[in-house]
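BACKBONE STRUCTURE TOKENS:
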Amino acid sequence: MAVPKRKTSKARRDKRRSSVWKLTAPALVKCPNCGALNLPHRICAECGRYDGKVVLNMDAKA
């Protein structure tokens, strides 16, 4: 079984545990029609438009 030859210092240990695991927040863009925030290259959940065209009729869903 492998055994460490030297003790790992606190600085080295803490560098490894620092902030590598933290995730970045997803990028959000404003819808040019209604101004709601959504993910890029996705249909707007508020107005149902994508690339200036109506893709989903949101009045029928409500």
Observations:
- The longest helix spans residues 10-17.
- Residues 26-62 form one domain.
